[in-house]
């Protein structure tokens, strides 16, 4: 099979869908960090560092908030991992189910914040229930993205994508603008979309969603995730989905 035939329409559809989900992950992190007490509900690595600072008694970081986000993320990833595997093993459409679960949790988090804080930010009030629901949603996202297995597009972090892109360009500079195979171009597109997607999500969320208030911003993102889930049900993203 040639490189050209190895890249299918479903590859590009998956790349587009995962790119959009990456933008939404960046938006969630912008909202959670700026309005929910300086935690990253999607970027789990950041919370691990915050927890380390808190336990060391440095940086004026409370233990409870990063601990809540880590616990919620792990629980969401664990439960969704089991559920999605069972669906996949039975030949059921697990990807839209995972996205729907994420959207419901985000909407729940947004509703909780609206009920408790109105259109204002959560800030330093430590609304652990709202933070926990959003972290659960991002744990579900992590499991869903992992099972989709789109190389270079975990949707939640950009460090690996940056390293992969830089290394690929340095190792094959002649193919940067011309001479690259379809698979190389697809890989570079995915790495670039991951980095740019998180940046755009953070920037657009800061400019457009954060002014709405935490609750409404989360509800908007939940609606967008549902739209992606519906698209995934109507348009096949894989030639054949099977359990692994």
TrEMBL record:
Q: Which domain of life is it from?
A: Bacteria
Output the InterPro entries linked to this UniProt entry. Answer: DUF1275
According to the record, the segments passing through the membrane are 12-32, 39-57, 63-84, 96-116, 128-146, 191-210, 216-237
Which protein are we looking at?
DUF1275 domain-containing protein
Keyword annotations:
Membrane, Transmembrane, Transmembrane helix
- Say if the entry is tagged with keyword Transmembrane helix: yes
- What are the boundaries of the signal sequence? none
**Which organism was this protein described from?**
Streptomyces composti
Keyword Translocase set for record: no
List each coiled-coil range: none
């Amino acid at each position: 099979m040639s490189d050209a035939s190895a890249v299918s329409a479903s590859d590009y559809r998956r790349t587009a869908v995962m790119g959009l989900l990456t933008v939404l992950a960046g938006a969630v992190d912008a909202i959670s960090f700026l309005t929910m007490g300086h935690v990253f509900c999607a970027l789990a690595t950041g919370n691990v560092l915050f927890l380390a600072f808190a336990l060391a008694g440095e940086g004026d970081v409370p233990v409870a908030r990063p601990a809540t986000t880590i616990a919620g993320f792990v629980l969401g990833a664990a439960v969704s991992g089991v559920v999605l595997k069972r669906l996949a093993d039975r030949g059921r459409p697990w990807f839209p189910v995972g996205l729907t679960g994420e959207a419901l949790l985000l909407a729940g988090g947004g509703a909780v914040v609206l009920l408790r804080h109105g259109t204002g930010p959560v800030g330093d009030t430590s609304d652990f229930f709202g933070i926990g629901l959003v972290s659960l949603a991002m744990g579900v996202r992590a499991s869903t993205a992992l099972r989709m297995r789109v190389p270079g597009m975990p949707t939640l972090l950009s460090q690996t994508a940056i390293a992969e892109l830089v290394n690929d360009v340095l190792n094959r500079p002649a193919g940067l603008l011309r001479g690259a195979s379809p698979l190389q171009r697809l890989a570079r597109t995915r790495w670039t979309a991951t980095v740019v997607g998180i940046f755009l999500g953070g920037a657009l969320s800061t400019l457009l969603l954060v002014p709405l208030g935490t609750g409404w911003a989360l509800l908007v993102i939940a609606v967008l995730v549902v739209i992606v889930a519906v698209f995934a049900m109507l348009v096949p993203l894989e030639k054949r989905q099977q359990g692994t």
